[in-house]
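Re-run with default settings, no changes from the original entry. Doing this only to confirm the output is reproducible before filing.
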Amino acid sequence: MTKLTLGTHPFLLGFDQLERLVERTAKSENGYPPYNIEQVRENAFRITLAVAGFGDDDLSITIENRQLVVRGKQIDDSADRVFLHRGIAARQFQRTFLLADGVEVAGASMENGLLHIDLARAVHDEVVQTIRINKGYEE
């Protein structure tokens, strides 16, 4: 018996790249920082990441090949400090979210240690296109 994957299903032509993106995104999942994804309106979403201890300059948000990439990097300034207990580590992270076609980043904001990234899906008019059938080969 042959196992059909998303990219090889006969009704899903051209989706093989999507399957590779999903696999790559799933492999990068490490649990830090924790996040929520919520639907705020019919065509609007918000990703909220818990980034306590990170400042605006420690974070970057980019879109790379239809992927939203959030990176955080803190400078470890502990060389001049003596800790009796260290439970808060200066660590870096990269969190990736795959964006569907038509989903755009509407903005980002920081509030109380939470990074909010607002996304909006463009609503397109339904278009019906008629394809002409040629008679024989035309060059």
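Residues 29 and 90 are 19 Å apart (CA to CA). The two ends are 43 Å apart (CA to CA).
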